[in-house]
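About this split. The held-out portion is used to measure sequence recovery: a designer receives only the structure tokens and must propose an amino acid at every position. Recovery is the fraction of positions where the proposal matches the reference. Here is one held-out target exactly as it appears in the evaluation file.
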């Protein structure tokens, strides 16, 4: 009844494939963050990527990677839960609750945040184009 590539089954199967690809990118990205490997992290980020911190400040890709390369920012532990992926053709969103233990300028701190990543499929690979963090005041 449906032609090749049409119908709800094909769309949902394609969506599941994209979701699995994105989850794998997120996993590898997290591993690179724990290793504090700025070069590997950079491969997951688009050239125009930005992160919006919980205080509303906007940090661009080059500044973020420079801070990691300098050793001023070190991620020691990162865990995510309540991960949700939504795909829209060549765009996807990932939301999660994250817990991390980090050092910045030698001072250790922990975070409990709601993170949103926006991905775009560019040149055949998924890259993060935007990250937005919101501090969670209560445990979820």
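Reference sequence for scoring:
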């Amino acid at each position: 009844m449906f032609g090749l590539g049409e119908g709800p089954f094909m769309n949902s199967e394609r969506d599941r494939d994209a979701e699995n690809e994105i989850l794998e990118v997120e996993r590898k990205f997290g591993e690179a963050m724990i290793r504090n490997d700025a070069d590997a992290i950079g491969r997951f980020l688009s050239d125009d990527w930005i992160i919006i911190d919980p205080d509303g400040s906007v940090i661009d890709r080059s500044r973020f990677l420079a801070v990691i390369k300098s050793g001023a920012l070190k991620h020691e532990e990162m865990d995510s839960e309540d991960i949700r992926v939504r795909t829209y053709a060549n765009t996807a969103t990932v939301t999660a609750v994250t817990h991390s233990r980090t050092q910045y300028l030698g001072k250790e701190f922990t975070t409990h945040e709601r993170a949103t990543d926006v991905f775009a499929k560019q040149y055949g690979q998924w890259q993060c184009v935007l990250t937005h963090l919101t501090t969670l005041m209560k445990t979820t």
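Annotator remark: The first strand starts at residue 45 and ends at 52.
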